[in-house]
Write a structure and sequence with these properties.
β3 and β4 form a beta hairpin. The protein is rod-shaped. The protein has 3 helices and 5 strands; from the N terminus they run ααββββαβ. Strands 1, 2, 3, 4 and 5 form a 5-stranded antiparallel beta sheet that branches. It has 2 domains: 32 residues; 97 residues, no CATH class. With 146 residues, it is an alpha+beta fold.
């Protein structure tokens, strides 16, 4: 019996279609509802390259990790830092590293707090106290593929 002869008979054709649907339906349901999509590690953050001064959005796990290649610019190989913006003069700049030690003359607790606060000082206007905000990826006007 040929394939064309099988499809001419209505009852045989319906059985073949029914069997194909029974085989395909669980596969479709599995891929639609039960397959787990991988959860991306990290968060999308606005970053600033310290070397070429380009800005972009990138998924960052730990910005201080020197071994993670995602923390380096694809364009120039420079180090990426979180992007900040001065709310007074609208200047955009990278935040310095968080693990830098306070200077030796910061012996008192308040000096150490000032050192931490001064990390966020705008390099353009140096307003005291700092009036900066960490940028989000949707606030970047000219995005580069970092």
């Amino acid at each position: 019996m040929t394939l064309a002869a099988l499809f001419r008979e209505r009852q045989t054709r319906n059985r073949i279609i029914f069997a194909a649907l029974i085989l395909l339906l669980p596969i479709v349901v599995y891929f639609q509802f039960f397959r787990k999509k991988p959860i991306p590690v990290g968060a999308e953050r606005a970053v600033f390259c310290t070397k070429c001064k380009s800005m972009g959005a990138k998924i960052i796990v730990d910005i201080e990790d020197d071994k993670d290649q995602r923390n380096y610019c694809k364009i120039c190989g420079g180090r990426l830092r979180y992007a900040a913006k001065c709310l007074k003069c609208k200047y955009e700049f990278p935040l310095p590293a968080a693990d830098s030690a306070p200077p030796g003359d910061a012996k008192h607790t308040m000096d150490k707090f000032r050192f931490l606060r001064d990390r966020e000082l705008c390099p353009n206007c140096r307003q005291e106290p700092p009036d900066t905000a960490i940028m989000t990826p949707d606030q970047i006007e000219k995005k580069a593929d970092l």
